[in-house]
Automatic annotation (TrEMBL):
PANTHER family: MUTATOR FAMILY TRANSPOSASE, TRANSPOSASE FOR INSERTION SEQUENCE ELEMENT IS1081. Signal peptide: none annotated. This is Mutator family transposase. One of its GO terms (molecular function) is DNA binding. Residues 32-57 are annotated as: Disordered. GO terms for biological process: DNA transposition. Required for the transposition of the insertion element. Belongs to the transposase mutator family. InterPro entries: Transposase_mutator. Transmembrane segments: none annotated. Residues 36-47 have a biased composition (Polar residues). It comes from the Bacteria.
Amino acid sequence: MKEMMSVILEGSLDGEMEEELGYSKYDFRNKETDNSRNGYNTKTMHTSYGDMELDVPRDRSGDFEPKIVKKYQNTISQDMEEKIISMYAKGMTTGDIESHMQEFMALIFRTVP
């Protein structure tokens, strides 16, 4: 369960970074910003399934502030865990769940100034 959750959350964080920068990971032709990806920081998250390591993307300017897993957050809410497990139990693949979360975060980015 921890592995599934980390794959989904890391993919969603990568999607957030893509939204923030405005271009996908290897799509330099569409880059319209001076900011770029700058690797990952490892973060330990406490879940009801035990501790798990997450690779959180970072940017060169240090402006990226993830919404799914905030900078100083070290626990995953029970509600988020249940939503992810519920989607998985309904037959969604980890890729489907990751995509769904990325689309949701894109909506949040568009509505928050």
